[in-house]
Amino acid sequence: TCALPIFRATVTDLILDQIMGMGQEIHDSLFEGYEATVEGWNDYYVSFGDDICVIFSACSLGPHALGAMEFHIDYSEVNLGEGGEAKLGL
C-alpha cells in the first residue's frame, strides 16, 4: 500500500491541530474554508530539515495582517514507515 496519502493526511491534521492551539482570535480571523488550503500544504513551502517545516504565504490562510504562517512538525509525530527517513534524505 502507498503510505503517501496517510502521510499527507497526518501532516494536514497536525497543522490543523496547531492552528486550533493558536487561540480563538487567530482562528476566527482565518479565511472561511482555510482547511482546504491546509490540505494542499505540499503546494506551499515545505522543507525537511531538523523537522518538517510548512510555510503558507501571507493571505493564504487569512488576511495579510496575519503574515506568513509557519508550522513545524517533528518527525516522531508522523509515521514515515520503514525507510521513510532515508527516502527523505535524512
Any overview of this molecule?
This protein is an alpha+beta fold. It contains four helices and three strands; from the N terminus they run H-H-H-E-E-E-H. The protein has a three-stranded antiparallel β-sheet, covered by helices on one side. Strand 1 and strand 2 form a beta hairpin. The longest helix has 17 residues, at 4-20.
Which characteristics define this entry?
3-stranded antiparallel sheet, 16% strand, 4 helices, single chain, alpha+beta, elongated
Strand neighbour order, sheet with most strands: 1-2-3
Overall 3D shape = elongated
The beta-strand count equals 3
Q: Mean pLDDT, nearest integer?
A: 89
**SS summary, helix count:** 4
Order of helices and strands: HHHEEEH
| Percentage of residues in DSSP E strands | 15-25%
Rounded to an integer in angstroms, the radius of gyration calculated over CA atoms is 14 Å
Helix content: 25-40%
The largest pleated sheet is described as: 3 strands, antiparallel
Residue ranges: pLDDT <50 for 5 or more in a row? none
By secondary-structure content and strand pairing, the structural class works out as alpha+beta
Distance between the termini: 22 Å
Write the layout of secondary structure elements.
Elements: H1 4-20, H2 24-29, H3 34-39, E1 45-48, E2 52-56, E3 69-73, H4 84-87
Antiparallel strand pairs: 1-2, 2-3
